[in-house]
Amino acid sequence: MTFQRLLFFLLISIFSFGSIKLCAQQQDTVKHTLADSLPKSFVDRMQQFAKKSSEESRSDFDADKATISQIKIFDEIKRVLQKAKIYLRKNLDTTGTKTELKEIEADFKIAGDGVFVNRGTAQTFRNLTATSKILFELENKASKRKAALDASQTALNNFRYQLDSLSSIPSLFKFPKDSVSLMRYLKKIVVIAYEVKPIDSALKEANGNIQTLINQVNLTVFRLQSSLEEIESYQKAMAENAYRRDFGNIWAREGYYRPFNEILSHSMVKGLLTLSFYVENNQGRMVILLLLIITCFIYLRSLKNIYVERALLSPGFENQLVLKYPLLSALLIIISLFQFMFISPPFILNVMLWSVSCICVSFIFKQYISKYWMRIWLLMVLFFFFAAFGNLVLQASRIERWLMLGGSLIGCIAGGLALILGPKNELRERWITYSIGLMVGLEMAATVANLFGRYNLAKALFISGFLNVVIAILFLWTVRLINEGLSLAFNVYSSPNRKLFYLNYEKVGSRAPVLFYVLLVIGWVILFGRNFPAFAYLSRPLIEFFSEDRTIGNYTFSINNLVLFFGIMAIAVIISKIVSFFASDWHLDKSHGDKSKKQGIGSWLLLVRISILSLGLFLAVGAAGIPMDRFTIVLSALGVGIGFGLQTLVNNLVSGLIIAFEKPVNVGDIVDVDGQGGTMKSIGFRSSIIATWDGADVVMPNGDLLNSHLINWSLGGNRKRISIVIGVAYHTDLEKCRQLLKDVLESEERILKSPAPVIQYEQFGNSAIDLKIYFWTKHIAEALPTRSDLIIAINKVFKANNIEIPFAQQDIHLHYPEEDKNDNG
Question: Are the C-beta atoms of 461 and 454 separated by less than 8 Å?
Answer without folding.
Answer: no
